[in-house]
Amino acid sequence: MSTGPRPVRGMTRRAVLAALPAALRAQTPAKGQFLPVDWGRYPDPSTELEVLRLTDASYASHLPALPARAVTANSQQLLYVSTRTGSPQAHLLQLRDGRSRLLTAASALRPGAVSLTHDDRALLFFDVPALFLSPLSSLREQEIYRLRDGHAWSGGPVTSPDGLSFYFVETRDGSAELRRLRRPGGAVETIAAAEGLLLDPTPNPRRAMICWRTPDGGLWTATIDGSGPRRVETPPGRVLQAHWSPDGQALLYLLDPAEPGQLVSIREQQLDSRADALVAKTSQYAAFMPNANASVFLGSSRSKVNPSVLIMLRITRRELTLCDHNAADPAATAPVFAPNSQRIFFQSDRHGQPALYSMPVERLLEKTGT
């Protein structure tokens, strides 16, 4: 006796099968639609502080690759890429109520290839091979650049603080180029090139400069048109991550020392004098981020004994553990401060696929201006 599904009365088997794709499409959320809340709370096993899981670990969710803008200036919305609807798409999470707005219907969106524009009014994203600009008010996307023939996307987009330039990286035959797209005209130029990769291009918030890293642990700077490239002289070791100071006068960077047994440290180098100084030694950070005034650092430890997310007060160099991240790759946790320093975000695969997590820190840190 058959236990399979019975045919629908009045319809042939072929008609039923033909109707299935249309039914499935009807269940797929449309661009611009809000998706239901999908978060949960749990007490951290180590600190007993409450952690908010923003996305479910049954599908993959990723924060934008730094230094792309992920959190709006008012600290109320979070940009991320998720496979919740079946393929990688950009979403904007409302932090007040947990709903996520679907922003794209892309066919080849890369998880790290999204950013908010400088004024939070539009979304930048690579639906490879094209770069699109999509106003959040209408989501009527416009193609503003297409990768050159034979080239592949490697990083970006990143917006300049004034919104007049977008940066991204293209690769071909083992070489990389850092490209600058000028607005509003749309002219594109190469401002840096190297064998291998160019990582994390980061425009200076106050000066006409940009920095980037290389896979060998080097840190480089140049003017925004690519002139005057310089490898930053650091103590022996590898630069794991770098951020500009809020005033744009210095580089804050995470150094993994060449000497075995030494702790990963946060250092600062002044642009003009090139004076380089130790800020603090860390609990083996794999990734870090300063808050809006660089008075506090958020770090993700690669320690196997204590794989934690921590904050460090710069003035005292004192660390406070917030929670365990238990990520397979601590560097991929991508810890981020909200602009007002009242909330932190990170990603981890501790519960399955990569998911996004958040914790309030308003009882620990002073609010910063936006």
Question: How is the secondary structure organized here?
Answer:
Elements: H1 13-27, E1 34-35, E2 40-43, E3 50-53, E4 61-62, E5 77-82, E6 89-94, E7 100-102, E8 109-116, E9 122-127, E10 130-135, E11 142-146, E12 152-159, E13 165-172, E14 175-182, E15 188-195, E16 199-203, E17 209-213, E18 219-223, E19 230-231, E20 237-244, E21 250-257, E22 265-270, E23 276-281, E24 285-290, E25 296-301, E26 308-313, E27 318-324, E28 336-337, E29 343-348, E30 355-360
Antiparallel strand pairs: 1-7, 2-3, 3-30, 4-5, 5-6, 6-7, 8-9, 9-10, 10-11, 12-13, 13-14, 14-15, 16-17, 17-18, 18-19, 20-21, 21-22, 22-23, 24-25, 25-26, 26-27, 28-29, 29-30
Summarize the structure in words:
This protein is 4% helix and 45% strand. It is mostly beta strands and 370 residues long. Among the domains are: 104-231, TolB, C-terminal domain (Neuraminidase, 6 Propeller); 239-365, 6 Propeller (Neuraminidase), CATH 2.120.10. It has one helix and 30 strands.
Features:
Neuraminidase, 1 helix, 370 residues, 5-stranded antiparallel sheet, mainly beta, globular, 4% helix, 45% strand
In short, what is this structure?
The chain is mostly beta strands and 370 residues long.
CATH superfamily of the domain at 104-231: TolB, C-terminal domain
Structural class: mainly beta
> Distance N terminus to C terminus?
69 Å
What about the largest sheet?
5 strands, antiparallel
Question: Any idea what the radius of gyration is?
Answer: 22 Å
Instruction: Identify low-pLDDT runs.
Output: 1-26
**Helix proportion of residues, in percent?**
under 10%
Proportion of beta-strand residues: over 45%
Q: Give the strand order of the largest sheet, numbering strands 1, 2, ... along the chain.
A: 1-7-6-5-4
CATH topology of the domain at 104-231: Neuraminidase
Tertiary shape: globular
Mean pLDDT: 92
Number of strand segments = 30
What top-tier CATH class of the domain at 104-231 fits best? Mainly Beta
